[in-house]
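Task: complex structure prediction.
Instruction: return structure tokens for all chains below.
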Amino acid sequence: MKNQYEVIIIGGSYAGLSAAMALGRASRKVLVIDSGKPCNRQTPHSHNFLTRDGETPAALASIAKEQVLNYPSVTFITDKATDAKKTDVGFEIKTESEELFICEKLLLAAGIKDIMPDIDGFADCWGISVIHCPYCHGYEVKGQKTAIFANGDAAYHYSMLLQQWTKELTIFTNGKANFTEEQMTKFEKHNISVVENPIAKLEHKQGQLECIVLENGERYDFSVMYAKPEFKQHCDITEKMNLLNDNGYVKVDEMQRTIAEGIYAVGDCTTPMRAVAAAVASGTMAGAVINNDMAAASF
Ligand SMILES: Cc1cc2nc3c(=O)[nH]c(=O)nc-3n(C[C@H](O)[C@H](O)[C@H](O)COP(=O)(O)OP(=O)(O)OC[C@H]3O[C@@H](n4cnc5c(N)ncnc54)[C@H](O)[C@@H]3O)c2cc1C
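Output:
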């Protein structure tokens, strides 16, 4: 049947493609549905992935897609999965272009969506000079005067961790600071100042931060800022199927199985440990586990 697959993967970026490769190499009939919006698409260079350090995110994905599609049992379509329904034999997936597909196993690999704070310039700088992860982008800006856009424990954690990259840190809490006395003592010890006044805008040139401007008119020259914005699941099927834990991630076991029979999940939608290598590793695991579960059922 035309629209019938053994496995459907929702999300065809690093995690989804990695699972598709394992499944393609097991000659499983796989459909990858991808809407083409990976979370790192605005970042100029991706780091910390062996053999591809410093490659553009798009090049990484395109090499991956080319290699995965060498396996003839794998099909890739550009579309958005809008709904998933459990059936007697598996799942029915609907897409934005009104297609209906069926499969035995479902793999969720749709990542998360970062929600940009309502600060002029923030979204333009995201992934370029407003960065979330020192392992991904910290080396390139090490030793520089660095802003942290966070409050409470998140700001404290960044302050501790970033010492390995720079000693010149300023925390912008964008409102009343929320720190314990012990935390403030640590900040004083390490000459970390805390700015509470709300930020009005980030001045930048093509995403390269130049100045943080506060609502009271104060200006702070910075060329790099760390921030961990709020997020939501990129594909709301994960919520509709009640698969999330209290932190907003799809709950999986160490084999990438969710709490629902026949549904697996990989990559950023499952974990705060965001890295291409981690996404790829989870995809490799899920591909093998799905094939294993199908082989066991039919043996
Ligand atoms: C700004 C930024 C910079 C980063 N830099 C680095 C770096 O330098 N090094 C590093 O190792 N990591 C980096 N990361 C982390 C890394 O990009 C992620 O860990 C990785 O992309 C996760 O892969 P994923 O496949 O889980 O999700 P994504 O790469 O986010 O891909 C999810 C895919 O699913 C698709 N999708 C979503 N919903 C649907 C739907 N309903 N139907 C069909 N398709 C759907 C999306 O369009 C997308 O193509 C960065 C992250 C960000 C945000």
